Amino acid sequence: MKKSLGANTFAMPSPVWVVGSYGEGGEPNIMTAAWGGICCSAPPCVAVSLQKPRATYQNILNHQAFTISIPSSIHLVETDYVGIASGKNSDKFSVAKLTVVKSDLVDAPYVQEFPLILECKLLQAIELGMHTQFIGEIVDVKAEEHVLDEKGVPTLEKVNPFIFSAPERMYYRIGHALEKSHSVGLKLRKIPEK
């Protein structure tokens, strides 16, 4: 029997992303965000939801761009730190000993040490309540060569990202591959009788 827990943010899991933006004076800033995901295939888009008090909120509106740097689990400490500290009064890149890279395509920085980067131009900002959802069109994906497979696409195992569980306020490492999508379920298709 299931127990009602009321209206809450208990969808599992959430990604752990680092959102890059430039401040009013051009200073690079990053923050950790978990309320995000892919929201469109064509054009390829991501959505990330932020609260108004965050420095990144106004930075994205001012520059009409942001990046998503996807950290591997070896950067857990740095990633958690940039989600705790405020970009309004600290240089998170310096404290976390992360390298700023200026995107050539959008007006936002990204983290050199993180293996997978999404460079996004802002398409929409949708007021939802406590959060505003920023929808960004992905104009380019950058990946370290060592995380690519033989077809040239990033693999989860090689990127080694980690996830967030909101109910527990815990990070988790992603487990092992199970089965190929869009194929394992074919076992349940009825075979027409001849």
Automatic annotation (TrEMBL):
Transmembrane segments: none annotated. InterPro entries: Flavin_Rdtase-like_dom (IPR002563), Flavoredoxin (IPR052174), Split_barrel_FMN-bd (IPR012349). Keywords: Flavoprotein. Pfam families: Flavin_Reduct. Residues 12-155 form the Flavin reductase like domain. Its cofactor is FMN. One of its GO terms (molecular function) is oxidoreductase activity, acting on the CH-NH group of donors, NAD or NADP as acceptor. Gene3D superfamilies: Electron Transport, Fmn-binding Protein, Chain A. The keyword Repeat does not apply. PANTHER family: FLAVOREDOXIN, FLAVOREDOXIN-RELATED-RELATED. Belongs to the flavoredoxin family. This is Flavin reductase domain protein FMN-binding protein. It comes from Pelosinus fermentans B4. The lineage of its organism: Bacteria, Bacillati, Bacillota, Negativicutes, Selenomonadales.
